[in-house]
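Work package 3, deliverable 3.1, input record:
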Amino acid sequence: MQVPSPSTREAASMYGTVVAIFLVILVATLQSSAPPENPFPYQVPLDPEGSLELSWNVSDAQKTVHFQLLVQELKAGVLFGMSDRGELENADLVVLWTDGDRTYFGDAWSDQRGQIHLDSRQDYQLLRARRTPEGLSLIFKRPFDTCDPKDYLIEDGTVHLVYGVLEEPFRTLEAINTSGLQTGLQRVQLLKPSIPIPALPVDTHTMEIRTPDILIPGQLTTYWCHITELPDGFSRHHIVMYEPIVTKGNEALVHHMEVFQCAAQFETFPQFSGPCDSKMKPGRLNYCRHVLAAWALGAKAFYYPEEAGLAFGGHGSSRFLRLEVHYHNPLKIQGRRDSSGIRLHYTATLRRFDAGIMELGLVYSPVMAIPPRETAFVLTGYCTDKCTQLALPPLGIHIFASQLHTHLTGRKVVTVLVRDGREMEIVNRDDHYSPHFQEIRMLKKMVSVHPGDVLVTSCTYNTEDRELATVGGFGILEEMCVNYVHYYPQTQLELCKSTVDPGFLREYFHLVNRFNGEEVCTCPQASVPEQFATVPWNSFNRDVLRALYGFAPISMHCNKSSAVRFQGEWNRQPLPEIISKLEEPTSHCPASQDQSPSSHTVVNIGGGKG
Amino acid sequence: MQVPSPSTREAASMYGTVVAIFLVILVATLQSSAPPENPFPYQVPLDPEGSLELSWNVSDAQKTVHFQLLVQELKAGVLFGMSDRGELENADLVVLWTDGDRTYFGDAWSDQRGQIHLDSRQDYQLLRARRTPEGLSLIFKRPFDTCDPKDYLIEDGTVHLVYGVLEEPFRTLEAINTSGLQTGLQRVQLLKPSIPIPALPVDTHTMEIRTPDILIPGQLTTYWCHITELPDGFSRHHIVMYEPIVTKGNEALVHHMEVFQCAAQFETFPQFSGPCDSKMKPGRLNYCRHVLAAWALGAKAFYYPEEAGLAFGGHGSSRFLRLEVHYHNPLKIQGRRDSSGIRLHYTATLRRFDAGIMELGLVYSPVMAIPPRETAFVLTGYCTDKCTQLALPPLGIHIFASQLHTHLTGRKVVTVLVRDGREMEIVNRDDHYSPHFQEIRMLKKMVSVHPGDVLVTSCTYNTEDRELATVGGFGILEEMCVNYVHYYPQTQLELCKSTVDPGFLREYFHLVNRFNGEEVCTCPQASVPEQFATVPWNSFNRDVLRALYGFAPISMHCNKSSAVRFQGEWNRQPLPEIISKLEEPTSHCPASQDQSPSSHTVVNIGGGKG
């Protein structure tokens, strides 16, 4: 796509500012195009105080999102929009602003210095603006893809929403720079899949796993750990749905919550309710890692497919559960009490299939490493045909949900299904992935994996701010590349992941030594992280590491549980060959378009209910 | 740029076919916009019989080319256009065709199967169509860049012109497929630089170096070698201009011509006039390699800048000259006689500066190699700051012309001037380079090279049809990457080229051995070509070779003549660092454009001169 030069754009935008004065549109007359009742099923607070609230819905047919922005206390205006990773520069924005006299609404964009410009194409369409008892309500809509290169393309996966508050009037839109405003970001999955909600069994019961009216610490980040247990003699049940319970008033503080089942190997677990990083936390709680339920901001209830449920309770499973709540408290609010948690809906009438969770991607091993100062380094983990051939039932499995996972430098994650060497479909993809926003996402369409299929999981990392290589591992400063896929029927295969063959990595260090003379000692007796730490990261050593990961045989973990492998030879396996790639979706945008004249809309904000 | 889907395009094109019937434009009325007298200074025959002749001119101000296509015997129509490398598929075309009733002219394109479609934007504008005693003359124009993604972008350097002859009427344009036609290609430099022609000295004399009325062999390719000599006692002169002499009727057969001076080390050279590959050719003629003049199809006279001339004659230079004429005779025409050659214009009044020729790029060495089955592998040769610092005069040199050179797999060549690590300007660039069309090209703008500057020459190769690595060398199946730059004032520096450091290449072979186990023997006692021949070309060995060439130190040839180096340490030199790249020229095309309705023009071909 070609972007007009700033001067053309500025001229167009100035022209727009002038004509707008004559362009009074009575937006109230457009009300009829607002969607019908309960029109905005999804909701997030944008700011930590919750004074800006976004609701939205998604029309797959029209490929359009309708937004409602509720501004509790309008000052001189507000801006809202989207950007690649939540920055206020190079953002796609709608701006409501006043010059002190009139109030305007316009599709705008910010440049790399945060300076705002009116967009030459007005793709956000204002449908209604009115004062309500809760505040100013703005309803507007936008296509997923506006075909305007200045606009954000709304894709599946994470979307970084941004907002800003205008405290005073601005004579023109171009006088606004986002750097001078109170701004922030919020991550959501905007394009929720439209899946029919399965009916719940008549004998559905509920169980609430909640924090016991705790005091939220007045600090930026708290992970709260709370141990609870199933009733004595609780038999095997199927979880068929779960939903968040968020204490009223804390909507902007509760960032995500997960319920884990503890390991069956221990008879009992100690009681505990406190920060997960507390010195007082019993070590045994680290054995409570089997995910039962997970929720993150903006998500709604999670329904299992009608034919499957997640087994819990009964013989061979632990009675102990760990609830983990992530409180995100940037304003360091003190004294707020909270009883948030998750409500499990379960049935004793077991469904036809047990659901299972399988781990795809990379083994947690330092042999997979990312050089420092890379903006987009890709690591790839494989679940090979040999493993799926051995471990999957003849009719295959059906993946219905997925949770992507990396540590701090992860920027994109994707899993692709490969059959007979051909990429068939995307299992899950997030091109705006953030490690700070990991939720279990229902897939738009279930993906069936047959015995002999290959699953390729690739993660893209940004290590621009690192000085040393980032190696794979459990530590928060180490990296992971994982896709937890939720599927049925459950199989014994819990983990289908890979690493590069360690022997080939030794050859790499040997080569680094040979090519760099006596200066470097990546001594063979040193550990892999130590060896990576001494590599001089010139272009050759970077390129060769990349080439190695794209070529060397792999070591497979095709495991029943994290320690028990399926029988077979799993070392020095050939890298799966991919002979044909999925085509990028072709854009619906025309090669050339009418340049519609730029304008913004003068808004009449009527009082009352009209 | 986005291309509309074929269905949209087809619909538009069908629409065009319908409306055209009502769109009778009297093209004769447009005559006034045809350019003034001698309007088409450049000329090439398109087909081997010369029955299609193209003339053209270039307006740098309007960034437009005016074409005149002369069709000696019009059958049912003709097509003409341009494509990336001369293929008739994916070509940008103008088509003159008849449905038996009316004759049409339209801007069209061919898809990857050769099927012709009317273009949704008509960017070729017909200015005049009339019958003349020589045949049908069509005059039309086109901007260099039409902003239509279906159109060819006319750039500096080689343009591959294509043509086709329609033998019978077609009911619609879409019924034409180029695969069923008599077609062909011709290479030219379309955008000749508009440089004022320097005045010739009053005492200019001419000397014609021509073949002696020879019989052109009835075979596809002949390189004819003809030895001639300067008059006895011919003193030092300056060549100030030279021009082609092409025997009338042979315009389509004479492909290129060069005049070489023989080496001064030999007192005398034997007489010879015959094919250069003849067994009868005396071996000593291989010592006649110093270029004095070179011409290729479509080129006009070559003028030296007013302040410089190319010295020949006099003490210390050979009296013997070798003329080489390349006859391209695809129809294997027999019995054609030829006396083509080059007319040198020279003066005894020596100009202020001697002109010189310097060789930039890669040393002819097998250490630089291209893996097989590569579509665009790049090799780069350097003329380093250390060499220019030592060898260039304090005020630098001025490059005014350039001849690019590779062997058969070369596809692009570019030389960039780098100063203080920053790319400053392009010396010469050809993105549609063909080894079959090597001409000396005047630069649009002289390039001054200062002591301490770096000259970076990169060649892009296509080895898709090769099974083994292609190594550097003199052989026609080996490769070169050379830019012969013509400059003044002449210096001692004849050759400023590089190769990768051979020690680092040895490490590469060592690494290939280590990574491929016992299977491969790239034995150290083998020659470099032998070692390259045994490399298994997996992705790793390709990637690492590419990484090596982009990283390893270089060995410099900073030479006075091909065997004598300037004094200094030239081995294991650091690769010049480039900290900032030249920006790609930004397109003038708007981000979005009006979609003008598609149509072609009904043509009235009047008789006579009107």
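The first helix of chain B runs from residue 6 to 20.
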